Amino acid sequence: MLSEQAQRPIIQTKKEICHSFGCVPYSSFALLLLTLFSKYEVEVSKSNNESARVIFYGELIYILECKLGGQHIWKTFRNQTRLLAVIKPCLTKNRDATKTLVEYEDYTTPIVTDLQVIQCVVGRVPRGSKWAIIDRSGDQVRTEFIDHDASGFYDSDHDDMYTSS
Fold first, then answer.
1. C-alpha pair distances (Å), 102 with each of 49, 57, 89, 134, 135
2. Is the pTM of this model over 0.85?
């Protein structure tokens, strides 16, 4: 059973999330966001100044579209549109469900990260008082982002998910 604290969101609404990041909800994904659980990998800094890629699982809460301005703070991302994922991470001790049984009972604080860190959608099933993650992605399955033009067709001249404004 999830703790009462884990069930209460820290940020209450999509509007509050969007306002805090200066973003708008990405409407194309509205129908997909029922309850999606995803596998994502993030580079994490270790105490010895090294970094390692770590596997996480979490509930995809929102996808945000963020149009960045021309300010120098954005460096190589200036004048681009970025898609961000708001994810509520499951407490899985960074185990890989493709290799071992991974269960969780609680979540941690929601995070905002680049949408491209999501590798795949995974399943979950109840197992007693916990949830078990079902990840059959293997090493060959990864999410692919395809850019579409305004008519909804694939733009073969632009194979990157992000576009300049």
1. 28, 10, 13, 8, 9
2. no
